[in-house]
Amino acid sequence: MKYDPQRRILAYDDTDLCDNVVWYGDFVKNSIVVCIFMMIDIITVMKVRKVRLFSVNNKNKNNESISEREKRFLKQTVSQGIVFMVELITWFSIDKITSNKVIIFLLSGYAFTLVHVLDG
């Protein structure tokens, strides 16, 4: 990796080996990990819902709050996954689409930082 002053980002050299490392080592690997995390979270919500339905005989007010918690958790999981996938796509493709330095900065370096700050 080296600093590319023209694009103002850290970038790999423009070789076939580096292209393979970037594509398979970064983009594909991170995309798969994000999809796995989203599937695990969705399965968790489904299992919690199944346990809650088994306890429906104990009609109490906690069932409604669990349902709201499930909705918030699912929304958070899906939104984090979508935002991270958008960041990955912009990080790896924006310099091929445009040469505008401001757009490249906002949709690559700034998006990368923003995703990791918002995720916490």
Describe this structure in words.
The protein is 78% helix and 5% strand. It has 120 residues and is mostly helical. It has one domain (2-119). It has a two-stranded antiparallel ribbon. The radius of gyration is 20 Å and the shape is elongated. It starts with a strand and ends with a helix.
List keywords for this structure.
120 residues; transmembrane; membrane; 78% helix; transmembrane helix; 7TM GPCR serpentine receptor class x (Srx) domain-containing protein; 7TM_GPCR_serpentine_rcpt_Srx; 2 strands
Give a brief outline of the structure.
This is 7TM GPCR serpentine receptor class x (Srx) domain-containing protein. With 120 residues, the protein is mainly alpha-helical. Helices cover 78% and strands 5% of the residues.
- Total number of beta strands: 2
Spell the H/E element sequence.
EEHHH
**Parts with pLDDT < 50 across at least 5 consecutive residues:** none
Mean pLDDT, to the nearest integer, reads: 77
**Number of separate structural domains:** 1
Largest sheet: 2 strands, antiparallel
The span between the termini is 27 Å
| Number of H- or I-type helical stretches | 3
Q: Fraction of residues in helices? A: over 70%
What would you report as the Rg, rounded to the nearest angstrom?
Answer: 20 Å
Content-based structural category = mainly alpha
Q: What strand line-up does the widest sheet have?
A: 1-2
